[in-house]
Each structure stands twice: as C-alpha cells, then as structure tokens.
Amino acid sequence: MALLYKSDPARGAEWAKILAEKAPDLSFRIWPDIGDPTEIRYFVAWMPPDDLAERFPNLELLMSSGAGVDHLDLSKLPPDLPVARMVETGIVDGMVEYVSMAVLGLHRDLIDYVGQQRAEIWQQIRVRPAATRRVGVLGLGMLGEACCRMLRTLGFQVAGWSRSGREIEGVTCFAGTESLPDFLGRTDILVCLLPLTEETRGMLGAELFAQLPKGARLVNVGRGGHLDQEALLAALESGQISAAVLDVCTPEPLTPGHPLWRHPRVLLTPHIASMTQPETAVDLVLENLRRHKAGEPLLGAVDRQRGY
Fold this sequence. Notes:
Structural class: alpha/beta
Largest sheet: 7 strands, parallel
Order of helices and strands: EHEEHEEHHEHEEHEHEHEHEH
Number of helices: 10
Radius of gyration: 21 Å
C-alpha cells in the first residue's frame, strides 16, 4: 500500500522527510519512480496521467496538490474515485498575505509610484483612508472568506459574492447572479478568488468591467481562465480599470512580447500567491487517509457536479 506524489520534485523531497517521521509505515513514492503500480492506493498530484484507472488499478483516493481542481479532467476519472482539494492552512495563510499585499498596494497607489520612480518624478498622491475604499471579493470559499476577514481588519469596506449565500461577520455578502451588478457597483478594488468552472471561465471580461465604478482596480488570484486579457487591456486603455495585479494568466508564462509583460498599469507575478507548504500539507493528507479508511467525509472533498 503506497502513496504516490506527482508535483514539484523539490517539495516532494521535503514530503519524503516529513512522512518518514510522521508515517514511517507508509510507502511514499515520487513520480516517475512509481514502483509496482498495483501497490499505489493514494495519489497526490497536480497533473495526473490520463490513463489513471488503467495505470493504477487499485487506486482508492486522488488528492490535488493545490487548492483548485481545474487542472483535473474530472470526466476522465473513475466515477467512484474520491477526489479532494488541498485545503491545508499554509495555502490559506499565503493567499491572505498576497491578497492583503495586492489590495494595499493598489489602495496606496504603489503602481503609480513605481512608474514615477522610473520616470524620476517626485509627486505625492492624496492618501485615502482604508475605510473609504470598497473592496469586493469574488468567491467566498475557504480562501475568499479568510481574505475577507483580513481585509476587514485592515479597515476596508468589504463585500463578498458567491453563487450561494454566505454570512461573514463584518462583510456584506451577496449571492446569486441577480445580485452581481449591485456587488460590482459598490466595488473599488475587485479580488477574484473564484474556482474555475465553465460558468466562471472568462467572467472577468468587458461586461463585468463595465459594471464596476470608473477607475476600479483588479486583483486576479483565481486562474488565468477567469480573465479575458484582451478585455482587460481595453479597459486599462479606456481607464475603466485603472490598475491590475495579476498572479495568473493564459498561458503561463505569457508569450514573449505580450502587452501585459510591460504594461505600466499592471503588476504581474508568476503564480506564486500561495503555495502548498509540505509540513501542513502532509498533515492534511494523513488526516484524509485516516478519514478514508474510517469511511468519514474527506477534508476538501470535491463535488463533481459543481466542479470544485
């Protein structure tokens, strides 16, 4: 009975050391050194092979090595194979840090000051109190809720939108498609933390941007597929969107010469907003193995009908 890991090899080596201490009886293997494939019962992967059922006939549980599952083709997986997302605390903490950094940077006009420094311009921009800035978070899952709570403590007026209703203390929550225009209309800085599904693909486009206040600012830490990049460039050109922080794009990395690389109103980072931390990830995996064996609900269990 073995656990197979297929993701970043350097972090896989860290997993091996931690598992040797915490679960010495569990056989741990790092792709592509899979050994006897019939012994693989559990699989932690970012991009599993398409022939999963044929290659690992005794597989009992598949876990994503990241917080999302849009990289998995759920339709190709055995219908009775349980699938779980990585919901460990390290991912949450990292995302809260990044979103706080991005929102504060946009709020305090950091992109403007970077441009002024390059142009050797010494010019102050009037400082607005955080309490006068309205932040809206698209997606109120584990990551979205945690970010809302932190942004609230920083003093912002925070609202969140999700497909189904949520309640978060100190946060104005909107739910359902019919409430989206009202949510967007009160949002000065928009943060996207939605799961990527067929319904949300391309959601950050011209129609949505037009419903934001003129000069709104954007943070995309969801997936590149959420964003219509051409629509963003047009919105930046018109001033409908005044600045953007993008941690994800399509493709990754962007093609050489793409306008977003050098756009003066865009800060681009290479999909690093949050990373799985081996120590806490191993704890989550071991807990899910225990739950699986005991027939208990998995942490981060994926609902295939919803796609996340």
